[in-house]
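Hi there, hope your week has been kind to you so far. Would you mind checking whether the tokens look sensible for this chain? I owe you a coffee for this, so here goes:
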Amino acid sequence: MSTSDPVCGAPILQATGLVKQYKRVRAVDGVSLRVDAGERVGLLGPNGAGKTTTLMMLLGVITPDGGAVEISGFRLPKQRSRAMEEVGFAAGYLPLPERIRVVEFLELFGRLYGLRDPTPVVEAGLDRFNIAHLAKAMGNELSSGQRTLVGIVKATLHQPRLLVLDEPTASLDPDVALRVRTGLERLCADEGTALLVTSHNMTEVERLCDRVVFISGGRVVADGTAEEVATRFGRDDLEGVFLHLAAGGSALRGADIEKEVP
């Protein structure tokens, strides 16, 4: 858990020139990415673009063949254990234990994270995402959306400097998705937490993220606000950009555009 005060604009995640080669296929080819304190960034791309491989390198799950990753100044892979103390991870598809109450589950993980008294932190997390009423619920009583919210609370108990979310609003009802967005916006604003989101829900990304990074063919082909990226690809929105790239649309144009993004 970080003990330093967050400073807006300070780099929390810095990746430079990431490369990953699988036999004859270069899955990632020189990807660079920066996420600052308090910033909400979407990492986007069609299937096979290199997005998942990039994410796994950012988390130290796989080692890049080239390039470097730093999280809060700790360099992977040598300092991965220390770096991962600064990271929270949640995904809509991760299971929760069924025969334990939500508050017991969260307090257990709070202690595993090193919190002497996890109760106030758990209560604050449940309040932030407007699910305090679920504290006494059993895991098997939760809907899929409620499980997603509890998983995000768990991932933030240790006050990570970087929160990574994989498909956080997949298949959620609009009201639950709104709770997710609202809670994450409060977290980033109040704590200076840097947020990195991967998703295929372009509408949710537009609503949540300050900036989006598109990967196609193993390279970053666009980096800017949702409006900037859509406009400079000649599309109405991010879904249009996604469909363009998924259909094999030119990534070169995106690369040229990226250089113009402030």
In short: The first strand starts at residue 11 and ends at 22. The chain has one domain: 11-257. Residues 174-191 form the longest helix (18 residues). Residues 11-257 form a domain with the Rossmann fold fold (CATH 3.40.50.300).
